[in-house]
Amino acid sequence: MRPSPAFLVPALAAAGLFFSVVTTAQGAATTPSPAGAAILSAQTGLNWHETPAQLTATCDTAIADTKVTVAKILAVPSNSDDFKTSIQPLESTLADLTDRTTVQTTLNQLSPDKAVRDSSTDCNQKVSNYLVEVSADPRIYAAAQKVSSNGSAKTLADRKLVEFYIINGRRSGAGLDDAKRKLVTQSFQHLSDLERDFALTLSNDASAISINAAEAASLPASFVATLKKTKSGYDVAVDESTYDQFMSNEKSSDARHRFYLAYGRRGGDKNIQRLQEAVAVRDRIAHILGFSDWAAYQLDAKMAKTPQRVETFLTEIDKTLLPKAQSEVAVLAALKHSRGDSGPFQRWDYGYYENLLVKTRYQVNEQEIRQYFPIDHVISSVFGIYEKLLGVKFSEIQPGDVWAPGVREFAIADTTSGKPIGWFYLDLFPRPGKYDHFANFPIRGGRALPDGSYQKPVTAIIGNWPVGAPGKPALLSHGEVITFFHEFGHAMHSSLSIAPYETLYGTSVRPDFVEAPSQMLENFMWQPSILKEVSSNVETGQPLPDAVIKKMIALQHVSDGMTWTGQAFYAQYDMTIHSSGPNVNVDTTWSRLQPLMTPFATVPGTHSEASFGHLMGGYDAGYYGYLWSKVYAQDMFTVFQQGGLENPAVGLRYRQDILEPGATEEPDVLVQRFLGRPLNYDAFYRDIGLHK
Asked: Confidence band (pLDDT; 50, 70, 90) for 77?
């Protein structure tokens, strides 16, 4: 999930409707909504259509207005510091800035117009730099400390907000002397620039390889139909939307090698240099703030608390599952040799022979599975599951108010009351200059407004699904369906929270818990009854046969060794470069750790850290959170296993206990309330094969 653009300054960010059928753009239909409810209009209050000049003017005006208002709030004599005269109006003012500039700071990864993207990039830098200054303002820090001690923050949410401002101020350098604070502020601003440029380089990447007609012969015809034809064959874009289909089906080892090299070179030397420089800047910030390194600084604000605790956690996982991963690769190597290729088993062989193993031993054909997951049915059925589970209704708004052709807009309402809740967008296919992965973008958080109303949230799922052949619907793999279900879970967390402050809204929870709700929901996509709902053969409309589902489920843990040692490696790499001083070599560290923690060495000529966007997008010294939060996810899923997968009563508890509070309470408190007991690791250990 992409970090929220709400008021999370770099220091912490790193840290029913009318009873009618609304027809979608592709011809699918949303479910009917309760009579008497009011559908929201397409207008969210956000302007996606400014020219570059207008965008710049909006951005500059919003920042200037905020500076004036903040100055007025801070001009109140300090002896009168009270929650309602200091922290509350500051929060409202800064949330206003975020809301007024969220489009202007997000379009750099969404707009089809490069000039707009460039203006958005400039605005992003200006807003980020200003928020860095605000977070380090000693007057705000002092006001938060005084409010904390004088008891003027009355509610739990009020006190959590004050706590946030204190922690954020301390971690941003607000308690330092002027010289050190200035250095920290400049360093955070520089870090923000590096992270922005790293992400934009990936968004603008246009890597491609050429293949001849013979090499194209083993690829699915539906995939080949989407490729650009050349005199001798085809050009294949090298990105998230093509990787699985190409690497799983391309018979030519040489072609797979070329694709893998291009994929592993995305970002290039410039992104290696940006990551290297970011590590040094982070280390400098950590030391000025009194921490031994960036990992210690980041973990201080997370559930895990210490790097040592994370190291122990990762080591246990890797040492237990590495033999399984090696065994999995040995099986694939034997399969390769049995097919007459006596050469060594290479990293670019893995996807092809894993797919071949699945088809031969398990008799599951990915291309046949794709026939059961046309995108329209996947979207409508996923909507239906979430609607039933969480007590909400979705209706597509046409025409939508969107930023690019093909983007779809939906309204959300509560089923019981019919009360409108907010909006979400689906932007699911690749285009030049667009964010290159799959994520939920929380565009605008909900919050209580000064007039007593509640601001409706806006979120978006941004993806890069494979496009369909001309005149044909796009078809998804089971893994792509799981990803969509996961990200839609984030979208609901970003929409159903009722936290009163934007800073505490929705996914603004502890970073090493934020993935847990969506990871829990991934389990649904391995349940036979759910797979029946989500599948519909593109030709016959029939769901997946029981026998095929049984085979698919048998595959769930086949590659656990590779999957989890890979995750442990990524997390360990992250922790290592952020705890080894400013001069650690980010490139050689990758090459050193990979063969120690996974069955493969780094492929010469690749530098995968240059496209490891998480480490320059808010998951630095935090990638372990995917594994850490899995503990919470698997334990929470036991409640659905016991109470019923689509039991609305269980779903309502999940909505109320986990999604609605946002960051107003600690994750452990939320989870224990939902479970009715303290957290335990049993379900997690069983899931990854530790059997404890």
From this structure: confident
Instruction: Report yes or no: 122 and 196 within 8 Å, Cβ to Cβ.
Output: no
For the chain, the structural domain boundaries read 206-264
Residues 6 or more apart whose CB falls under 8 angstroms from that of 252 comprise 211, 214, 215, 218
Residue 689 has a pLDDT of 75
The answer to pTM > 0.70 is yes
Distance between CA atoms of 98 and 165, rounded to whole angstroms? 16
Distance between start and end Cα atoms, the chain: 30
Judge whether 458 and 443 are in contact, CB under 8 Å: yes
Asked whether 505 and 445 are in contact (CB, 8 A), the reply is yes
Alpha carbons 482 and 384: distance in angstroms, whole number = 15
Scan for tokens 């604070």, then name that residue: 181
- C-beta separation of 404 from 543 below 8 A: no
CB 162 within 8 A of CB 198: no
Residue 73: count other Cβ atoms within 10 Å of its Cβ.
18
* Chain centre to alpha carbon of residue 660: 19
Least confident of 39-48, 77-86, 206-215, 299-308: 77-86
Among the listed residues 215, 240, 487, 609, the single catalytic one is 487
The torsion angles phi and psi of 427, rounded to 5 degrees, stand at: -130, 90
- Binning pLDDT at 50, 70 and 90, where does residue 682 land? very high
Q: State the pairing for strand pair 420-427/458-462.
A: parallel
Please name which of 546, 376, 381 lies closest in space to residue 473, comparing C-alpha atoms.
376
Confidence of residue 4 (pLDDT cuts 50, 70, 90): very low
| Residue with tokens 């490139």, as numbered in its chain | 587
Tokens of 147: 């409010």
The DSSP 8-state label assigned to residue 523 in this structure reads G
Contact at 8 Å (CB) between 48 and 402? yes
Label each residue of 455-473 as H, E or C.
Answer: ECCEEEEECCCCCCCCCCC
Instruction: Identify how many contiguous H helices and E strands the chain contains and give both numbers.
Output: 27, 10
pLDDT in tens, 477-505: 999 999 999 999 999 999 999 999 999 99
Q: Is the peptide bond before 667 cis (omega within 30 degrees of 0)?
A: no
Average confidence (pLDDT) over 287-303: 96
Backbone angles phi, psi at 430, to 5 degrees: -70, 155
The neighbouring-strand residues paired with 412 are: 394, 422
487 part of the active site: yes
Q: At what angle do helices 114-135 and 52-74 cross, to 10 degrees?
A: 10
